[in-house]
Amino acid sequence: MKNRLTILFSLIVTIIFAQSVIIPADNVFYNPDIKSYRKTISEPTNTTNHSELLQNAIDEVAKKGGGILTIEATKNNTKYNINTEIEIKSGVHIRVSPNVVFTTTNAKKTVLFSAGKNGNKQISNISFSCTDSKSFFTFDFSNRQGGKSTTEFGVIALALGGVQNFRVADFKVIDNFTPFSAITVNLLDLNNGKYLFAHDGIIEHLEITKGHYGYGLIQCQAAVNVLYRNLNGEGGATLRLETGAIGKAYLTDKSIKIDQVYGKNIICKNGQAAITLSPHTIINGKVFVDDLTAISCEAGAIIASGFLSEKKGQKDETGEMIEGYELGIFDPSSVISNLKVTYGTTAQLRGSRRAFVPCSQRSLVNSEFNTDGESYQGPTVTGLMYYAKGGTDLSKGYYTVKTPGLVLKNFPMIDGKMENKEVIVSPKEAINGCDITFEKEKAQPKEEKAKKGQNKGQNKGKKKKDN
After folding, report:
1. What's residue 439's pLDDT?
2. How far apart are CA 183 and CA 436, in angstroms?
3. 466 near 242, Cβ under 8 Å?
């Protein structure tokens, strides 16, 4: 059997029709107005926390009506330590030299930079990029302890909320399997039943290494007219379009959603997927993504169906939907085109998805958790994990995403047939009867579940991926 596994052939499958997503011009997303004021920070001062230095410089540029803040470093003094969240203000365009390293020694959950996450107004006309557009500056979280079961130790490089007319680009994140995506795109809560979220922007030319399975490079909860381009992720999902955290806000404002979101050149290595779509309880708009690559990832893309959470008060303990909620979808005209999935044996696998691994490949799945404490190293499972295709009823959270140009490469062949499934549409496709089986994920203790159900699912707890 092992000899047969070594015979790998390139296989092209499911070319539905020749179609590629057309990406609009950059000025459809971002039109900067850069004022004349200039300020430069030459190097990090000799302190243990450079947050005040950086915040004061941003505030100075903003008070002058906007302009460019350049952050530099010397050869022997490159690290800016940030232990207090830094807020980017309207009109401020930050340019960072390639040798600059941002890090933190704050042991608790930490956000290093944010824009439109706090306050009561939209932040607009901003950018955060490298002085050399072909290089990267760095966020270094390599010394941070990864794999925590809770999120209190997580770290976020950049958190976006109510932002408009923005560009983020040119940095790499050296992670250590810590909770939270490196960039989060979420809401600004105005505390009066109204919310602001991302409109009109470009996020591009970014990398991450050692990403946590449940997170990765970017998680977008809400955005309209935003382009994600040239993203390279090792570990986790490179681009996660998941709207689980905004369910309660959506009850009062149906404009909060993902719509007219574009993507180009999205890469996953040794992770979960190049892109995931998970609508939870939100009726989302259109997503158009082209030219994706997944090399030794769990799947090329994961397209989840709508989902209700008892923990968030969206269904009661019997599974009945709480009034006001509905099962989410993405617009059926959405397209993920030209996805190339290359089989490998160093993917991150969710515990429940190990059951999709063909019997002859079960020995390739590690028996112990990865450092992230959530996934197992193992072989690529499928080209598409496509639970949203489990039916045709939109009201039940099923929807269709067109996937022209899907290519599967180097998957094991047995008797001339690819052993792995090209597409998996249901948990019921688990493979039974293998010599090697896996333990099921531990069930929640009954007494804990009963306690949480006492308030008929009205708890305010948050699922970890929604931060």
Report:
1. 82
2. 38
3. yes
Q: Cα–chain-centroid distance for residue 67?
A: 30
> Global pTM?
0.90
If you count DSSP H runs as helices and E runs as strands, how many of each does the chain have, helices first?
A: 4, 29
> Above 90 in pLDDT, residue 228?
yes
SS3 of 56, please?
helix
Task: Using pLDDT thresholds of 50, 70 and 90, give the confidence band for residue 466.
Answer: very low
CB 362 within 8 A of CB 316: no
Q: How far apart are CA 270 and CA 352, in angstroms?
A: 18
Q: Measured at the alpha carbon of residue 138, what is the angle toward residues 69 and 134, in degrees to the nearest 5?
A: 75
The pLDDT tens digits of the residues spanning 369-397 come to: 999 999 999 999 999 999 999 877 888 99
Say if residues 196 and 172 touch (Cβ distance below 8 Å).
no
Phi, psi (degrees; rounded to nearest 5) at 245: -85, -10
Q: Are 208 and 182 in contact (CB under 8 A)?
A: yes
CB 467 within 8 A of CB 183: no
Q: Distance (Å, rounded) from C-alpha 67 to C-alpha 36?
A: 5
Q: Which residues touch 193 (CB under 8 Å, ≥6 apart)?
A: 252, 253
| CATH superfamily of domain region 2-466 | Single-stranded right-handed beta-helix, Pectin lyase-like (2.160.20.10)
In the chain, where are the structural domains located? 2-466
* pLDDT-based confidence at residue 440 (cuts at 50, 70, 90): confident
One-letter amino acid for residue 259 of the chain: D
pLDDT over 90 (residue 247)? yes
Phi–psi pair at 29, nearest 5 degrees: -105, -35
Task: Work out the pLDDT band at 442, boundaries 50, 70, 90.
Answer: low
Characterize the bridge pairing of strands 223-234 and 237-242. Answer: unpaired
pLDDT above 90: residue 340 = yes
Are the beta carbons of 165 and 123 closer than 8 angstroms? Answer: no
